[in-house]
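chain below, 284 aa
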Amino acid sequence: MDNAHLVQPLPHERAAEARASAPAALPRARRRRWHLLLAPAFGLCLLAGWALVARSGMYAAFIVPTPMSVAERWWGLASDGSLIRHAAVTLREVLSGLLIGVAVAFWLGYWIAKSRAVAFTLTPYLVALQAVPIVAIAPLLIIWFGSGVASKVIICALIVFFPMLVNTVIGMRSIPAELHDLLRSLEATPLQTFWHLELPAALPIVLGGLKVSATLSVIGAVVGEFVSASAGLGYLINFGRGTYDTPLVIAAVFTLTALALTLYGLAAWLERLLLGWQRANGTP
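prediction:
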């Protein structure tokens, strides 16, 4: 007679077996939820430290204003529409410069990666252009193209150009030669090779350059507005600095930060959207 059914595990043994058989994904999911709280918690600590310094009496109110005074200044700007108006000007410059700079950089980077003649011809000049600080040539661009939107767009395009160019070249050159040989053996056209091999293979590195360029584009627009502008968030910062309106300066800086984070988030979302096949294949 089989007595195996008479041997039953004790309650604590059943609990141990259940814990041992629980999927490992549950602790990882809990850790991810905790990780989501780290950035807000750190931000609250910085805010508390700022408030303590502002209320300590070590600095005058116009040097280190309280977070509440900055929030009130920001709300006042948002209520009368001036913040939206100036932010719209900066956003137009940023998006236009980002689009132009990324498109030109990708096109040039592709040909530099494909042609040694193009690489040897253009690389020294492109590196020399990058070596010159954008602040040094911004006044020249204002003189040549005027103080309107065009000069700001050019400055923004120049500052996002080089990171996108470098990432495009690295991405295209990282494709194994064997894959090009395979496409040639299949008699693929250059367009088919680009669309089915080169673009998908280089896309992870290219999108990394796009995320860097998205944040730098805000810097480019503000540099142009610092030199000469009658509108924009950079103009607000200049105006606040000249009038010792520190809450205005900090409010404009926070708005610029939110704009840069939004652009970075959109680039990261585009990366997840276009590279979903990597996660589906188990690529981290």
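The chain has a mean pLDDT of 84. Residues 190-227 form the longest helix (38 residues).
thats it, cya
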